[in-house]
Amino acid sequence: MKLISQSDPKKCKTLPISAVNGFNIVSTNTTTIVSGTVTSLISSKDLLLNQYMPSTVDYVATLSIVETIRGALDAGYIIINLTPSIATINNNMNLVRVADGTSSILITLSSHRITKRADNSVYRVIGTTSSSFSSYNTGSLAQHCSNYIDSSILTATPVSAMPIFSTIDNSNAIYVRNTLCWANSADLTCISPWNNNTGTEKSGTLISPQHIIFANHFTYPNGTILRFVDNTNNVVNATLSTQAQVGSTDIQIGLLTTPILSTISYAKILPKTIANYLPSLSYNYTIPTLSTNQFKQAIVDDLAQLTMAAQFKVPQNSTRKSFYTNIISGDSGSPSFLIINNQLVLITCWTLASEGPSLIDNYDSINATMSALGGGYQLTDISLNSFNTY
Q1: Cβ density class 212-249: b for 16+ within 10 Å, e for less
Q2: In this structure, are 190 and 270 located in the same domain?
Q3: Residues 188 and 319 grouped into a single domain
Q4: pLDDT at position 37
Q5: Of 126, 170, 209, 260, which has the highest C-beta tally within 10 A?
Q6: What is the pLDDT of residues 131-177, one digit of tens each?
Q7: What is the DSSP letter of 367?
Q8: What is the DSSP letter of 74?
Q9: What's the burial of 323, exposed, middle or buried (CB within 10 Å: 0-12/13-18/19+)?
């Protein structure tokens, strides 16, 4: 997220369509190692950590904005630091210690004059033993997912490697897959690039040969035609027959008139036991993901949470961040994936600017909705048998 200061009137982000007019500030405790000598590497579940002793450590926080109330809105946040003598705040919403004390940050939703305040204790500890992230352990799912994306973008150039298609001609239904796209080795055919209701907006993602998933607050009518494109650039049309909301969530499931049993794939889902494979996932230990938007770009986001809601943060790594862009109006319903063994594994579809509903928490309800709609299909789990459990 781009930081707004009093001297920088630009918006830090544009909210997605039917976004929210309320928000909360979430503070996540973080540490910054100022100095110290690495004495050893220690293993903790799927993490490999640098151990420092003695060390100087700053205890600070990372702030994130979580929207709470839906309503059509397009606005920016104004961020004002009330205590710059205690801590500064950078473009990634990280507090940086200046002196011990309490940091106070005001965040205002500019168009609605809604203001929230975040107070966080900031202090330094000298002569302690501390640790920092080194890498994910060999054989872990986190290592596999991180390595795939990090190695794919390492020598790529964002302007040429982010577009999923090198040619998009919606008028003539011509789509050519971009061989330079960093995610091109994965099967991206489950992502619909166009529909005859709103064009490139209101994305639909196949989760079975006959079911699609999208956002309940950004639906299209029954009878809508969606296009899918196979790996050899052939277009397959599908018609939405009926649809239903999953409980009271922002998840909408649609049934197509007939199954797509050709060269178009469907996204798999993480199993309900995923916590056994990603025990350290948090705002401190994130995993890069493939996210998409209405412009059919391959975006790199950092996944921080899978339950309650799938939540993301702006990548801290500079290479990943060069492949990141904000989710904006019209992106709602666009999917986000982990890439596991070159397969797309759906995490969520965007509801807000930094999160979407948890598919793990709604796994059984999604299957029940698919059954009620018909077609005879259920979600398909990705096999994680080759990865360590913890």
Answers
A1: bbbbbbbbbeeebebbbbbeeeeeeebebbebbebeeb
A2: yes
A3: yes
A4: 85
A5: 260
A6: 889 999 999 999 999 999 999 999 999 999 999 999 999 999 999 99
A7: H
A8: -
A9: buried
- Between CA 211 and CA 193 the distance in angstroms is 16
Torsion angles phi and psi, residue 280, rounded to 5: -105, 0
Number of folded domains that form the chain: 2
Q: What is the CATH number of the domain that holds 292?
A: 2.40.10.10
Print the domain residue range for 62.
20-136
Q: What is the mean pLDDT of the chain?
A: 89
Chain segment 321-349, per-residue pLDDT in tens: 999 998 888 899 999 999 999 999 999 99
> At 276, is the secondary structure helix, strand, or coil?
helix
Last residue of a domain, one of 136, 165, 183: 136
Provide the token pair at 91.
């473009």
Residue entry with tokens 């992230």: 133
Residues 95, 220 within the same domain: no
The burial class, CB within 10 Å (0-12 / 13-18 / 19+), for 381 is middle
Count of CB atoms situated within 10 Å of the CB of 182: 25
On the CB side of 311, CA atoms within 13 Å amount to 16
Of 97, 57, 64, the closest CA to residue 282 belongs to: 64
197, burial (CB in 10 Å: exposed 0-12, middle 13-18, buried 19+): middle
Q: Helix, strand or coil for residue 20?
A: strand
Give the C-alpha separation, 321 to 314, whole Å.
7
Rounded to two decimals, the pTM is 0.81
**Is the distance from CB of 235 to CB of 202 less than 8 angstroms?**
no
Give the pLDDT mean for 35-44: 89
How far is Cα of residue 210 from the mean position of the Cα atoms in its chain?
25
Length of the chain: 390
Tokens of 365: 């309800």
